[in-house]
Write a structure and sequence with these properties.
Blueprint lengths: L2 H9 L3 H23 L2 H17 L9 H20 L36 H13 L3 H12 L4 H8 L3 H20 L7 H9 L2
Helix pairs in contact: 1-2, 2-3, 2-4, 3-4, 4-7, 5-8, 6-8, 7-8
Length: about 200
């Protein structure tokens, strides 16, 4: 796929070209919205609004990572949705940490494979992880989704949500600590590889 060609065609009014871009990025946008909002209907609605907004604002795209540009729009749409919903205020799972040393990995966020010997219910584990993510304050939740779920580097995530790099690192460190504690509560659902990783971050 020649992304730049499709973008230029879409800028010229080609709906077909834009729809091809949508097909490429719709899963990434939905996943981000679902992780931040916590329910599928809201995520689907937000994904649709994101692409409508992107099409309307396509002339403002000035190059660089198109994915980052799309996810920036999606993140803003999520914030708008949360402001409208104003439901289920988050309660911190633990006191604020003074030690903001960044945890270098959050492998429990990325390990979704179950080996033959691991018969745990993957769907139940997924729900547990999402519940832990949803319990985070929205600013922690967003950076966790961008870095640990979407795999962005700190600099790209900082650009997406227009937040200083140091703040990104601080929020991510705190978010990972909270997620670790939350996942300890569903210990029996976790595969061995994730348990070992969690024990190693104590």
């Amino acid at each position: 796929m020649d992304e730049n060609y499709l973008i230029e065609e879409a800028k010229q009014g080609s709906l077909d070209a834009f729809n091809r871009l949508v097909l490429v990025y719709q899963t990434r946008v939905f996943n981000l919205a679902y992780r931040i909002l916590g329910d599928e209907p809201s995520a689907e609605d937000t994904a649709q609004t994101t692409f409508l907004t992107a099409y309307q604002k396509l002339s403002s795209y000035r190059g660089g990572s198109f994915l980052a540009w799309i996810l920036r729009i999606a993140t803003n749409q999520c914030y708008d949705k949360l402001r409208i919903l104003k439901r289920h205020p988050t309660t911190p799972l633990e006191p604020e940490y003074d030690d903001e040393e960044t945890m270098e990995s959050a492998l429990w966020m990325k390990d979704t494979s179950a080996g033959p010997e691991e018969s745990f219910d993957q769907a139940e584990l997924e729900r547990a992880i999402q519940k832990c993510i949803s319990a985070l304050p929205v600013e922690y939740r967003t950076v966790t989704v961008l870095v640990d779920v979407e795999g962005m580097d700190y600099e790209t995530a900082a650009g997406v949500i227009k937040t200083p790099l140091g703040t990104i690192k601080s929020r991510l460190a705190r978010a990972r600590l909270r997620l670790r504690e939350c996942l300890m509560g569903v210990w029996e659902l976790l595969p061995t590889s994730i348990r070992l990783n969690l024990e190693g971050t104590k």
